[in-house]
């Protein structure tokens, strides 16, 4: 798979503040890349650097295999974007706004505007000036503007902000369609893990300007989510028995009442028997899923502040 975006040690400082620090990321063709991070992590700044709207302080960017320089234009024509709250000509209609955009981009495929408005399901808007639009409608129109020129790459900054639950659902399936049917590659930022985990193929976690991890959802699901939790009133004895008597090393003590074993090779029955025979006071043994939220919170050592839901 080819990489449409590649950054190497990309950095941005504003005065004394390090907003983006040494970020090396890859977005591959045909995927939905979820860019996850709490508010203020530097997501918008990084996306603006990808679009040449903000000048990096250090590092480099490649788009479609071509180095992005201050005067670069061609690769940017292949990108649709919506960064922060979209701005429109308020007195014009949705259609007129998109017409102006297509004109500016030199894009003249007939039916493109109608199709984009239908894709985002903007309804009952004929003749209405954009100043009468709700936040959700503006967000939909922003997405329509980003996709109406059929870009190969879409950069969307917090695209579901302001949408109601139905709108979120519709937008999520639109993103999947754009990727699967229209062959677009999407980079979507969000501070909401619940949103990103449902749509992304790859997740990049940004925290205080640093990329903590870039990982496929598939590998998170298969390797990080399963564990067996022993509830006990004596975690120290339990850990000692696991280590010394049962040869289990990949465990973690959680507070004063639980021990978690990852990738356990013995059966639950064998484990239970081994613990009881060694006088560990076991109150329960359960197979659990490490929620993705826990997984990401652990990554940021609990300080990330991801919202699990809206
Ligand atoms: N032009 C600027 N001058 C000074 N500081 C800035 C500028 N732009 C952004 N920052 C700071 O950089 C940090 C990261 O901002 P950025 O908007 O990139 O974060 P974000 O992850 O997109 O968060 P949000 O979702 O809240 O926009 C913030 O602390 C912000 O105040």
- At the fold tier of CATH, the topology name of the largest domain is Rossmann fold
Sequence stretches where pLDDT stays below 50 over 5 or more residues = 302-310
DSSP summary, beta strand count: 15
Number of helices, where a helix is a run of at least 4 consecutive DSSP H or I residues: 11
Q: What is the count of distinct domains?
A: 2
Radius of gyration: 24 Å
Q: CATH homologous superfamily of the largest domain?
A: P-loop containing nucleotide triphosphate hydrolases
Helix residue percentage: 25-40%
Strand order of the largest sheet: 7-8-9-4-10-11
CATH class of the largest domain: Alpha Beta
Largest sheet: 6 strands, mixed
Mean pLDDT: 89
The CATH architecture of the largest domain can be given as 3-Layer(aba) Sandwich
Bound molecules: adenosine-5'-triphosphate
Would you mind describing this structure in some detail?
The protein is of the alpha/beta class and 310 residues long. It folds into two domains: 3-221, Rossmann fold (3-Layer(aba) Sandwich), CATH 3.40.50.300; 224-295, Alpha-Beta Plaits (2-Layer Sandwich). The protein is 34% helix and 28% strand. Strand 13 and strand 14 (258-262) form a beta hairpin. The longest helix is centred in the middle third of the chain and has 16 residues, at 165-180. One of its GO terms (molecular function) is ATP binding. It comes from Paenibacillus paeoniae.
